[in-house]
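thoughts on my protein:
***
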Amino acid sequence: MQNQAMVMTDVRKFELCNVSMPEVGTDELGIAVKSVGICGSDMHFYEGKAFSIFPNSLPFVLGHEAAGVVYQVGENVKDFQVGDRVAIEPGVPCGKCAFCESGRYNLCPDVVFLATPPVEGALKRYIKYPAFKTYRLPDNLSMTEGALLEPLSVGIHAAQRSGVTIGKTVAILGGGCIGLCTLLAAKAWGASRIIVCDLFDSHLNKALALGATDTVNSGTQNTVEQIMKLTGGAGVDIVFETAGSPVTAAQTSHIVGRGGTIVMVGNIMPDVPFSFRNLYKKEAEVRAVFRYCNTYPIALQAVASGRIDVKRIVSASYPFEQAQQAFDHAVDDKVNCVKAVITME
């Protein structure tokens, strides 16, 4: 068995390198990787934008949305066997801190997260991974669907944090991968009206195909005015900010209705001008989302049962050897490429 990794050696440059096989520990699984999704954080690294946070991190291996087949089982692992098809949850918490013990392990200060320096990612033919953060895939789920449980978990965690239920009106600011996963989750949780806002008609058309009831092109229309018009001036019960933009973040307090909830999902680095007056006169709430916790079993069941069809967000698929072309497509054609996936035979 020869292991290979797609190593990022410079900005927008990969090299296919032979690397050693992982040494599988007693509580770990050896996994032959079969599918890896390209995430927005991966693209930030690829474009060089993440080096302000992680300087001197090259060479590096990206990829944290992954699924594969077990080829080796650690001696202490009882629930898996060779040949099992699995998805991995890419964050491994310490299991001992107050956050882990309370169930909010996504807030663990010592979490080890794939493709976050210095921890290498899953763009390899073979990896090892802790069994307790690995999930067996049912036969009716593809490897790509297994990899997409990761971004779907973000959407599900956002839906859970929002309190969305049957009859609620929702606005999603941003129609990229996370916005669409949030749409799928909000729809599954019973939202009656889902308004998706984005700059690109291609994203809005995809949102409609996935169940959005209304769309707003934020490049040609005034987002706040259009949402207020669609809701008869009341605003929406829940606003999800998924674009990671200071512009859309500032719009949230104008869009949310009285007694409503704002959920911040996107990763926004700069300071944002925000109207707290809008917030308190509506007695609205702001809640934040950091990754996810306790969502993988829910995501797995939702996809396996057919309640959520996550594979419809995929725009393109590339073989492992063409990882650079896959990343170039994802970065250079954001209008049409919502989610690119890399596959291994």
User: Anything to note?
Assistant: The two ends are 14 Å apart (CA to CA). The chain is about 30% helix and 25% strand.
